[in-house]
Specification:
25% helix; binds 3-carboxy-N,N,N-trimethylpropan-1-aminium; binds N-oxalylglycine; binds zinc ion
Length: 390
């Protein structure tokens, strides 16, 4: 093993005898990196375009039998030479720390992104919300508000224009509207011949929207234009918190809802027949919570659960619904004209209390997507770094 240490700082590096792995000690920890990984991720201008950062090479351009012949480290840079290419590449230490993969990977099934804070009714005392004018005029205020959506899965925006279509100004702050069969934007108010129960004064159990669509819209905006009728308050529930509670209480129930596909369908309009087959609790291949699909109105007959598990599946579904309907899971508020909320429709469920009597209630809604919002947020987070701007 060759030990190369410049002695002037704490970082040191060694190369395993076959040159396939290097061991880098930085910040008092040792991380291993594979030669092939380092070469594939080289940051030099022949590997990555300096203009757009995209990789210029294919993996087959890299010798399958490459090895590291030389490695040297300073306080802020690792320099590696690859053979037989005889190519020398520099890696900033900070970049290596950010991208190190030699660390424990023992996630329990149902883990969630560290950026997510799961919540229950106690969030009520500090609802994520902001003033429309502040967020529309200050990039810093926009950054804080979008961070709340990324962290809690939703945020309110208050006192915006009381103007039809104003919700598109909200979407313009972070992304692009997703048009569906319901239109670019849709009117949520009592209709004479409702094509969807949303267009009545009935209560709506907490749900995610459009589980019958694949992919589902990952953001929903609901914007209030009129709100004088008694009732009609909104309630939100963190579906990831509810799923976690189910997993803790009843691991087998969690497994049933995440393993087997439910079915969803919407055919409330003569021209539309949307169908999807997905689990109510969707996990990634490595067990991360990906999304919740829960909508009593649009659940179709389940035909993908083995006969011998159907009874237990229904028991798990019932318990999940009870957790979702439990006031301990809910935050609630009334939207007044000019107020809206934006939510992550893969995580947060929304409900509406029934309304009737004198007065009106009129919301406009639309869909958009989280990838665009997170992209906007990532750019704002680098442009307006709190550590730099104070
Ligand atoms: N609307 C409001 O997903 C759903 O069917 C809930 C959606 C009709 C666009 C209602
Ligand atoms: C919807 C919905 C809630 C409301 O339109 O998807 O759930 O407050 N509406 O009317
Ligand atoms: Zn809805």
């Amino acid at each position: 093993m060759t030990e190369i240490n410049n002695g002037a700082d704490m970082n040191s590096v060694s190369i395993d005898p076959d040159g396939q792995i290097i061991r880098l000690t930085m910040a008092n920890r040792t991380y291993r990196f594979h030669a092939i990984w380092l070469r594939d991720n080289a940051l030099d201008p022949n590997t990555r375009s300096t203009g757009n950062g995209q990789r210029l090479i294919a993996l087959q351009d890299v010798d399958a039998h490459l090895s590291v012949s030389h490695a040297q480290v300073t306080e802020d840079c690792l320099t590696v030479t690859f053979m037989l290419e005889n190519k020398t590449v520099d890696y900033p230490i900070n970049w290596l720390l950010t991208h190190a993969y030699d660390k424990p990977n023992n996630h329990a099934k149902g883990w969630h992104k560290p950026a997510h804070t799961l919540w229950d009714r106690r969030l009520m005392s500090h609802l994520p919300e902001a003033e429309f004018d502040a967020v529309a005029t200050s990039p810093q205020a926009l950054k804080v508000w979008l961070n709340h959506i990324a962290q809690f899965g939703f945020a309110k925006l208050n006192n915006g224009p009381v103007q039809p279509g104003a919700l598109t100004q909200v979407v313009d702050l972070f992304g692009h509207l997703r048009e569906t069969n319901y239109g670019r934007i849709f009117e949520v108010r009592v209709e004479e011949k409702p094509t969807n129960l949303a267009y009545t004064g009935l209560a709506l159990q907490a749900h995610t929207d459009n589980p019958y669509r694949d992919p589902v819209p990952t953001i929903q905006v609901l914007y209030c234009l009129e709100s004088s009728v008694p009732g009609g308050d909104n309630v939100l529930v963190d579906g990831f918190h509810a799923a976690t509670q189910l997993r803790q209480e009843n691991p087998r129930g969690f497994d049933l809802l995440s393993h087997y596909c439910a079915r969803f369908e919407y055919a409330g309009d003569a021209d539309v027949c949307l169908q999807a087959r997905r689990p109510m609790i969707e996990l990634s291949a490595d067990g991360q919570l990906q999304g919740i699909r829960f909508n009593n109105r649009s659940a179709a007959p389940f035909t993908d659960i083995p006969f011998e598990h159907m009874q237990d599946y229904y028991a798990a579904y019932r318990r999940f619904a009870e957790i979702i309907d439990d006031p301990a899971s809910e935050v609630g508020f009334r939207l007044n004209a000019g107020d809206c909320f934006v939510l992550d429709n893969t995580r947060i469920l929304h409900a509406r209390r029934a309304f009737s009597g004198a007065g009106t209630r009129w919301l406009q809604g639309c869909y958009a997507d989280m990838d665009g919002l997170l992209s906007r947020l990532a750019v704002l987070n680098t442009t307006y770094d709190d550590a730099l701007t104070g």
